[in-house]
Amino acid sequence: xxxxxxxxxxxxxxxxxxxxxxxxxxxxxxxxxxxxxxxxxxxxxxxxxxxxxxxxxxxxxxxxxxxxxxxxxxxxxxxxxxxxxxxxxxxxxxxxxxxxxxxxxxxxxxxxxxxxxxxxxxxxxxxxxxxxxxxxxxxxxxxxxxxxxxxxxxxxxxxxxxxxxxxxxxxxxxxxxxxxxxxxxxxxxxxxxxxxxxxxxxxxxxxxxxxxxxxxxxxxxxxxxxxxxxxxxxxxxxxxxxxxxxxxxxxxxxxxxxxxxxxxxxxxxxxxxxxxxxxxxxxxxxxxxxxxxxxxxxxxxxxxxxxxxxxxxxxxxxxxxxx
Length: 323
Prior knowledge:
Layout: H1 2-10, H2 12-37, H3 42-62, H4 64-83, H5 91-112, H6 117-125, H7 128-143, H8 147-155, H9 158-200, H10 205-214, H11 221-235, H12 239-265, H13 273-322
Helix pairs in contact: 2-3, 2-7, 2-9, 2-13, 4-5, 6-7, 9-10, 9-12, 9-13, 10-11, 11-12
């Protein structure tokens, strides 16, 4: 047991790369299967999806992201001005002082137009080798029919092979539905937020829209935080604008909670908000951005294993009573 723990600790970076590749492959496999229904060969379908995905991310990185990053750095500087030096020793001040130079470097890299896709992604995630490794691993796992399943069969002993695969397939279905629902909600909320703030004339509308879309992943707390930031920024212009911004976010949340959320989540997985929130916080603390990406899949896997264990426990109790 001690040897296993030591191995996991020493190989933690490689294991994170592998887990991230498995999550990406599991998400893309649904799209590849959809293309196969239209008689598109798996190799061609996988290439199409990866090329399209990299092209979309590259287009965003070199068009919208530089503007958003510059706006965000200006916003951070403005927050520092608003506080008037009263938080110099606080964690917020440390965060602002740490993030701002890094974002400025990333913005300069993007605006220069000379950086490659891998260089930009490596700046965000850290390490070109890690980025290339994730892309290659996820590509080959997606290319092979049930590639992740075959990989799991190869590394797990026969006694737990079928159980491991059963857990994986259930988790993949859950995560697929949850991710699709969250992406849809994030896109819709971000789009509505941007146009609403733009019409009202709120500064940094693009950044605030990105925040609103991103924090849709964080249940309960995320939308409240995004709305609070928007109201504070609008308040630097006028109290009237802050009030209109508050009403805008309130309307968006009501529409989302009573129309979009029930309609979308009805077909999605029932993930308890507390589990999602705790897993995101823990993942971010342990492994940063990669940890946030892996947090929910690992939490769902743990939930599935726990539910199975509880069912088996109840079954044993029933058998004991019958005996």
